[in-house]
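I have been asked to look over a protein record a colleague put together. Alongside the sequence sits a line of tokens, each denoting a local backbone shape. I have pasted the whole thing underneath without changing anything:
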Amino acid sequence: MPDRLRTAREDFLEKDMKRETLNRNIEKLKLQTKANVASEKDDMGKNKYPNETQRDAETLNRLYENREYQRHLAELDATKLDLEKSKIEIQHLSERLDTARTLAMLGWKL
């Protein structure tokens, strides 16, 4: 059982690293899109989106149309769910191991 617990913890760490990578990728796409929107000019050389509200709205529109961004969001949601399931599994295995140790100390066998 300790091996299963160790494996579950390693699995959790891998999923957590994946979550961090996805968060970084999402943030990178947000910043790139925001920079692109802010640097756009109209035909007269003026900022196409002159105020922050317009830039933010255009940035959101582009992000929601971006397939890579949407894919990362979906992966992030799935990874978060997997992390929660892993937490439950680790808790369950920890409790079983504690119970087995207690019973062993009392001279019982499972």
In short: The mean pLDDT is 94. The two ends are 12 Å apart (CA to CA). The first helix runs from residue 2 to 39.
